[in-house]
Specification:
- The structure holds 2 protein chains of 2 kinds.
- Helix content of chain A is 80%, strand content 1%.
- Chain A is globular.
- Chain A is mainly α.
- By secondary structure, chain B is mainly alpha-helical.
- Chain B folds into 2 domains: 51 residues; 52 residues.
- Chain B is 84% helix and 2% strand.
- Chain B is built from 5 helices and 1 strand.
- Chain B is globular and about 45 Å long.
- The interface between A and B is large, with 84 and 86 residues.
- Strand 1 of chain A pairs antiparallel with strand 1 of chain B, so a sheet runs across the interface.
Chain lengths: 148, 113
């Protein structure tokens, strides 16, 4: 049976402030660089950076570490489990990037003809809807494949 | 300089919020969706709209399509490599980063230049 979507705060308890600071720094640096690139090279090049996987290495490392520690607390080696968890998270991000694509298309097509803030909100909602939709399809596909 | 500082703070905050949401969600494949949240885009486009206007933001969004395609290839490659090989997540994610640049700038040179 597949796991339902739920909220689990254990990752927050197990994390150190330095890990959150690192992600804040990466996110802030990439946003600042996108601004600098726009100033020097224009919006066409800077736009590429809006979909840059800024915190991906930090997040994947964090997930791998958490899963490894969980297994090791139970007296087992968690190396493989940690790597698998990071892989599954990356697969989720690949699905989310399809939502990111739709987000970009909506903003490109509907600005500047429509209210800017309404377009931003609509694009964000579209990102969430498309990402969850793709995730659901993949989940059903895996379930069907396993049922064979 | 102040504008860059504002970008840094807003970008860091938005990215952190989406990362925290991803941290508390299970299963991992669902939480992973937030790894591709439009966090940098929301921070940048919001500030761009306020300072340079909607036409400028629209041009950035058009290029973002190439970045998103590159993100999909990057994340798929990372997921496959972590499942297939015995490398640490940090090495795989940083090692795959040149692929993001290659695809994003490749699409830029073919379709956007």
């Amino acid at each position: 049976m597949s796991m339902p979507v739920r909220v689990d705060g254990s990752a927050l308890r197990d994390s150190k402030w330095s890990q959150y600071t690192l992600r804040f720094l990466f996110g802030g640096i990439v946003t600042a660089i996108a601004g600098l690139v726009a100033q020097h090279y224009g919006p066409v090049i800077a736009g590429l950076l809006l979909a840059f996987p800024a915190i991906f290495p930090a997040s994947a490392t964090l997930i791998e570490k958490h899963e490894k520690q969980k297994k090791e607390k139970k007296g087992m080696s968690g190396t493989v489990r940690g790597r698998q968890a990071a892989s599954v998270d990356a697969a989720g991000s690949a699905m989310g990037s399809l939502g990111l694509l739709v987000f970009a298309v909506i903003i490109w097509r509907f600005l500047p003809a429509h209210s800017a803030w309404a377009v931003l909100i609509a694009a964000t909602v579209a990102w969430a809807v498309v990402s969850v939709f793709v995730w659901q399809i993949r989940k059903r596909g895996i379930r069907r494949w396993r049922g064979r | 300089m102040i504008q860059i500082l504002i970008r840094f703070l807003v970008g860091g905050a938005v990215v952190s919020v989406f990362a925290l949401i991803g941290d508390v969600l299970k299963p991992k494949s669902f939480a992973g969706l937030f790894g591709a949240a439009p966090s940098v885009a929301l921070a940048t486009l919001g500030l761009t709209l306020a300072t340079k206007g909607a036409s400028y933001a629209s041009i950035e969004a058009r290029s973002m399509i190439a970045g998103a395609i590159a993100f999909f290839i990057f994340a798929s490659l990372v997921s496959w490599s972590l499942m297939r090989y015995r490398f640490r997540a940090l090495w795989v994610t940083t090692g795959a980063m040149p692929f993001w640049f290659a695809v994003a700038f490749g699409l830029w040179s073919v379709a956007l230049k």
